[in-house]
Amino acid sequence: MKQLFTHARLVSPGWTRTDATLAVENGWIAAPFPAAEAEEIIDLGGALLLPGFFDVHFHGCGGGDFSDGTLEAVRTVAREKLRQGVTTFLGTTLTLPEAELVSALEAGREYMRAPDGAELAGIHLEGPFFAPESAGAQNPAYLQTPDIGLVDRLDAICPVRKVSYSPELDLEFRFLAALVERGILPSAAHTGADYELFCAAADRGLRGLTHFCNCMTPLHHLRFGLVGGGLSRNDVALELICDGVHLIPKMVEFIFRVAGCGRIQLITDSMRAAGMPDGEYTLGALPVVVEHRRARLKTGQVAGSTLAFHEGLRHVKEWTGLPLEELVRTTAWNQAESLGIPGIGKLEPGFRANLVRLSDDLEPEAAWIDGTLKWSKEE
Questions:
Q1: CATH code of residue 62
Q2: How far is residue 65's CA from residue 150's CA, in Å, rounded to a whole number?
Q3: Of 73, 117, 334, 378, which is the most exposed, with the fewest CB atoms less than 10 Å away?
Q4: Could you tell me the pTM of the whole model?
Q5: What is the pLDDT of residues 64-96, one digit of tens each?
Q6: What is the number of other CB atoms lying within 10 angstroms of the CB of residue 5?
């Protein structure tokens, strides 16, 4: 089927077009063709049209958590993500027993067979390979040393795309080498690793810093830490939670100014309370209290966010003053490129028509996957 999205403000990495038309053919963005040939014309009335967002790190929203291990939980989070403009996501797990991880990935596999919300592109294992001293809001009862056998067993159920782990538990870099060999993106997280260990790991294929600045060694004038490493190393992606809780606005602006938009990835790291009222919830069986949209364990640690993806983009635009055509690199293209997933993140021929319509204040109004309308706030 041929479609035309007309009277749109198109925004793609590196460019913006006003009062423009986007041609789509059989779910793919196509070279222009005559309007008379289109079977469907969608008049956007001057609204923004961007590549659909790609959240590579979140646990839950709308009351569900990916690690609940049920098809209904995956459907809940996938449908809620569409309302945030997210068309693709990685199901992100928690530090849990293997049996519970298996259940979560089995539910993910079942959802991938018949998706009815945002598209699940694979799994992000956040844990259980973390150092106890840096566990944060991860459940300390189920921490373990890096085990590529566990990764392989889970990958056989549902494709594992990314693994976040503590590099200090892998000083001989065997786990890192095994991930690189399998084409799985290794990312440092919940770690007390110093700058020197970070550089050694990056030289061997470490390519990410999970929720950058949070639960990692800070920048100090005598000890550069992972934060210093992330700011100075151009081949490592930086996940940012831009909710004003995990990072203050001035730090976000500083990171964008130093690192640029080319390797920053906006994430939400949201838990099940995202899109829900304040109250009591759980994260990996740990009790969480949400007050004024801030999620904390009862012991005080921050326990994920309640951020919606489009809210993070809105914050970054306000805090940095950067144009959307630069910021849009951080909402899908960088994520897809780092994971080696083609056809996502640009409004160019040969890319999938995964699209989000936004209002002037960056509120999602509709989302399409492969040119098919999946959600509209008018319905």
A1: 3.20.20.140
A2: 21
A3: 378
A4: 0.97
A5: 999 999 999 999 999 999 999 999 999 999 999
A6: 26
